[in-house]
Every structure is written in C-alpha cells, then in structure tokens.
Design a protein that fits this description.
Helix content: over 70%
CATH topology of one domain: Serine Threonine Protein Phosphatase 5, Tetratricopeptide repeat
Shape: elongated
Radius of gyration: 35 Å
CATH class of one domain: Mainly Alpha
Length: 375
C-alpha cells in the first residue's frame, strides 16, 4: 500500500511538472504574438507558440514567401506540375498572409496562388477548374488586380465558346461544353458590372445561346446589354439581334403574333435609334470603321425584316377577317360578322399597303361593297 501511494505521488508530481513546463513555454512564446489589423481581413493574431511550433520556428508569412518563391522557380523551369502542387498548398494554408512576388507586387499569398494555378490549369485545358480558381480570387480578394483576373476569365470562356475541349488527366480530350461557356460569360457579366468587360460577356453569352437554340437566354442577355449599357458600341448590334431572334420565333399567320409584334418593335427601334451611327465611348477609330461597315448591312436587313414582319401581321389580320367573312354566318347573323371582317381587312391594308395581303383584303372589301349595293 505504501509503495502504491509513493508511486501515485510521483506520478502527480511528474504531471504537475509537465504541465508547468508547457504552460511556461506557451506563456513565453505567446509574448511574441502580435495582434494585426487588416482593413480587408480584419483583426488577426500573428506569431505566438502555435505558429512557431507548427511552422518550424518560422512565421506564417515567411513560410508563404518561401513557398511562393519555390513555385515561381518551378514555373521558370517549366515544372508546371510541381508549381501547381505548390500553389495548391499556398492557397490552402495561407489565406491571409501577404507576400512579395518576383516582380515586386505585394499581394495575398492565396490570391496569387489561385491566379497562377488557374493559368497552369488553363495550359492543361482544365477550363472549369481554372475558371473556378479565378472566381475565388474575385469573391475573396477584391484588392487583387481585378482587370487581370477578368481578362483571364474572358479568355477561358471564349476558348470554351469556340469549341475547346476539357482534357481529362491533362491529355484525354473530353466533350465540347457550350453550356459551361454560357455560364462563364454570364458570371463574368455579374463580376464586372461595368462597361469595360460586361457588354462583351453579355454579347458572347447571347451568341452561344443562339448557336445552341436557346432563344430565351439569348434574349435575356441582349436585353440586359441594351438596358444596362445603352451607350456601348455593342448596343447597336444587340437591338438588331433582338429583332432577328424574335423574327425567328414567328411560326406563321395562323399562330399567335406576339413574337411578330416584338420583332416589329425592335426593327423600328433599330431604324430610329441608329439611323445615323456615332462613335461610342472607348471605341477606337479602327473598331468604329469596321462597325460602320457592318452597320450599313444591318440597316438594309432591318428595313427588309420590318417589311416581312408587317406583312406577317397583315396576313394574320387577313386570315382572321376571312374567317369572319366566310364562316362567321355559321355562328351568328351575317350582319353581326361583317363589321369585324371589314375591320380586320382595313388593318391588313394599313399594316402593309404594298403587300399581297393588302391587295387581297382590298378585293374582299369590294365584295362587301357589291353585297351592300345589291337591293
């Protein structure tokens, strides 16, 4: 019993000594910790016992700087796999540490790592992962070079929209993915929210949607463009494209004419707003000259399209008038159906006076006149 008590006393003394030593070390090292305020990331603690213990007696900033220099060296030696691995470590372990790049920029380590890893993944045709890495930079590190990130995102979206394939395991080509390209352009338009990049992204997303027979999504992108960026050089083409898309949705004179009316409205708006072409802000002389040549062709096509759509409306009015004229008496007295028939014939003539529909409506009106003149 005495032996057991002595042993227990020794164990308690050892435990006490161990905890005392650990507490002393922790206290001494904690004195070196610093409370740092960052305007973007808020308050944080740098240094102290834990950072020294797990960081091999280096601060987190020093570790991040060393890893960044290692990654830059691997890139310089074209060791892209090694660089990607190092950048992944930096992005995961150092979200708030700042480092200095080889070209003298002071940035967040994770932001630089995400951007550079995106460029490596772009080289490997891993479009989705590259874009997602850049999106993390946009959302988490607004102080990073925004234009540089958006340009990279736009480049990736453009390649996907042009039919580039995502490579599996860096060398096996996958399928084309226009839907993902459309999503990327939409995300770029949300990120940019300004005239520098958003109009181009919206127009690109509309082009991809039209190619993929997604007229509703194309209309949405183009309407956002003309509503949010009416002064942009692409606004002129957007009006014309909206008219063309609505015309493509017209099914014929016997169907609902909602798309026809919208096509007429956009063709008319285009001809009124862009009767003369002016140079847009930030548009170069060369770009304006090219757009002017395309505008001349679009102007001619808009006039022709407006004529087609007015004729379609006239044919629709003619069909309705003929129904009242030929079959209305089966359901109501003839005297009660003549008035709407005459009204629709007159509307057909007003909408497209030089069309075949107008000439047919004129002949049918003469029939009513002959009927009325008979005793």
């Amino acid at each position: 019993m005495v032996f057991r008590f002595n042993t227990m006393d020794k164990m308690k003394k050892l435990n006490f000594c161990g905890w005392f030593v650990l507490g002393t070390i922790f206290s001494l090292n904690s004195l070196e910790a610093k409370i740092v305020f960052d305007g973007e990331k808020g308050l944080r603690l740098e240094g102290g016992f834990l950072s020294r213990f797990f960081g091999g007696f280096e601060s987190d900033g020093e570790q991040a700087q060393a890893l960044l220099e290692k990654a830059e060296s691997e890139l310089a030696e074209n060791d892209f796999r090694g660089a990607l691995s190092t950048y992944k470590k930096i992005a995961k372990r150092f979200p708030i540490e700042k480092v200095e790049t080889s070209d003298g920029r002071k940035v967040y380590a994770a932001a630089e790592a995400l951007y550079q890893s995106a460029l490596v993944r772009e080289r490997y045709s891993q479009w989705g992962k590259a874009f997602d890495a850049l999106q993390q930079v946009v959302e988490k590190y607004p102080s990073y070079d925004f234009d540089k990130v958006i340009v990279a995102q736009s480049r990736i979206a453009a390649k996907l929209g042009a039919g580039a394939r995502t490579k599996v395991f860096r060398f096996i080509p996958g399928f084309k993915n226009y839907g993902q390209a459309l999503e990327f352009h939409q995300k770029i338009a949300e990120n940019a929210r300004g005239p520098e990049h958003a109009p181009v992204a919206l127009m690109a997303s509309a082009d991809i949607a039209r190619r993929d027979k997604k007229e509703v999504e194309a209309i949405d992108s183009l309407e956002r463009l003309i509503n949010l960026y009416p002064e942009d050089s692409l606004s002129e083409k957007a009006y014309f494209d909206l008219a063309v898309i609505h015309e493509s949705m017209v099914k014929g004179p016997l169907y609902d004419q909602g798309a026809t009316l919208k096509a007429v409205n956009f063709y008319e708006d285009y001809l009124i707003l862009f009767e003369a072409l002016a140079k847009a802000p930030r548009e170069t002389d060369d770009d304006f000259a090219k757009r002017r040549e395309a505008w001349k062709l679009r102007l001619q096509e808009a006039e022709k399209g407006l004529g087609r759509m007015r004729d379609m409306l006239a044919r629709s009015k003619l069909e309705i008038g003929q129904f009242y004229h030929r079959h209305g008496h089966k359901f109501a007295p003839r005297s009660s159906v003549e008035k709407p028939a005459i009204q629709y014939y007159n509307e057909a003539i007003t909408l497209a006076p030089d069309s075949d529909s107008a000439r047919s409506a004129t002949e049918l009106l003469k029939e009513f006149e002959k009927t009325e003149s008979q005793p």
